Amino acid sequence: MRYFNTEGRCIPKEHYMVCLNDRMERIREQYVDRGKYFVINKGRQYGKTTTLMALAEYLKKDYIAVFMDFQGIGSEEFANSQTFAHAFAEEFLTAFAESAPNEAANLLTPLTEFVNNLSNGNLRELFTVLSGICKSASRQVVLMIDEVDSASNNQVFIDFLAQLRRYYLAREKRPIFHSVILAGVYDIKNLRLKTRPQEEHQYNSPWNISADFNIDMSFSVNQITDMLVEYETDHHTGMDASGVAQELYQYTSGYPYLVSAICKIMDEKLSFMELFADTRSIWTKEGVREAVKILLRTRTTLFDSMVKHIHEYPDLKQMLYAILFQGERVTYNQDNHTIELACMFDYIVDDGVNVQVANRIFETCLYNLFLSEEELSSVMSKKAKQDKTQFISDGRLDMERVLAKFVEYFHDIYGDNDERFVEAYGRKFFLLYLKPIINGTGNYYIEAQTRDAGRTDVVVDYAGEQFVVELKIWRGNEYRERGERQLADYLNYFHKKKGYLLSFNFNKKKEIGMKTITIDDKTIVEAVV
Q: DSSP of 118-151, one letter per residue?
């Protein structure tokens, strides 16, 4: 029986996975057939290895696809040109024999002799031998190298890229690989960056022959649906595959690992929970939300990498903080190094004008990280922990009381601060107050489409019940009324009759406290501070 896999390469016969045939055809037509050299540069656990190995299988009828993994070359073998050349040759011998066993014996003799001659041999001599192999092979040779990040701090790898470039430019006279595909998190420009002192210029790379790789490697709603249909065929859960797929996409934006991880939790863990004892209740939107909550409490290598990068790059942390808490609009600029890094790690995406955090799960992880750094010293968090029990009745969250107590504390503690202070920190203080109350049972996310400097929609899920809370800076009655109408319309999307509005009001004649508004058939509880 197949299962959802989150550890390493996915194999169709063993794992539930999206169909990659369309992607393989596009990569072949747009890049391999045209003899392009390029990099598949995506964030961690984005399916790079699965894609490369599937591509090697897809190409084998018409090409000799040599698949290598630089993790097979030890760090000591990057010490100099000679040790690297021999290590590369050994790995290439094995990979070539796996791809074209009928040709290996005759073609690889010169390379075997190169390996055995331990007292000599460098990159220049290695490429002379490789050129001869490519010239004599019955089919064009495609070189595929996974985990090029393993070489990221080594000058010898830069020299290797320079040799590839040299032969690429002269391949009509000196045969070499028809196409070269490198895969890793860091693109080649940043590999170059990591080998040089920070004060030196970062944009000289021998890999300027590389074609831009523009194939979308995220999962679409249709691809996720097809994968779930295969699962449904085996398990007969009665799920609405399309509806569940759309919910998965809402949280993940198609990030491959996140989709598989949520599905794995639903498949393997939810059935042990009393709330989901019935299998039919697992594969629902409620099941997706519960699995997301479990995933966010799980320590994963992907989340660990995010935390590491946040602390490693202070400017990255500052930019993400400003986007999340201050509603700052950051215009996409590929020449901005911080934006380039965030895009390379797939933490943000370009929406056509500005950048935004790539998906709800990353966004919630970042909120949790930033809030946890301030939670111990936050007066609001301490108040929430003291009051936590009064907000839960019969297992249900009393959001109206949460807002009422927040208004009371915020006015007492921060009431004398000016508008600029509240614009910068108001939403953070609310989340610092909310998080300890729902922690362990509930979850929340921020609706990215409605987040700006004046408005933020927080969607809270607690014990299967959802609450929509709009946070808004008051800028006059007309603005407030428009906000109330926006919230009423937004409630339609969630099929809710009741919503909540938290207004930060700087009018000296304001009435602090709670009131209830009715718009059409919607009830809006407004908290004014």
A: TT---HHHHHHHHHHHHHH-SS-EEEEEE-GGGG
Structure confidence at residue 454 as a pLDDT band (50, 70, 90): low
CA angle (319 as vertex; 418, 150 as ends), nearest 5: 160
Contact criterion met (CB below 8 Å) for 139 and 179: no
Note whether 315 and 304 are within 8 A (CB).
Answer: no
Q: How far is CA 79 from each of CA 83, 121, 125, 189, 484, rounded to the nearest angstrom?
A: 7, 14, 17, 21, 65
Residues 6+ apart with CB under 8 A from 129: 89, 110, 111, 114
Q: What distance lies between CA 50 and its chain's CA centroid?
A: 16
> Residue 517 forms beta bridges with which residues?
524
Alpha-carbon span 263 to 267, nearest angstrom: 6
CB 399 within 8 A of CB 434: no
Strand, helix or coil for residue 178: coil
Residue 439, pLDDT score: 87
CA 277-278-282 angle, to 5 degrees, is 90
In whole angstroms, what is the distance from residue 267 CA to residue 261 CA? 10
Average pLDDT over residues 139-157: 86
Q: Indicate the angle between helix axes 155-169 and 81-99, nearest 10 degrees.
A: 60
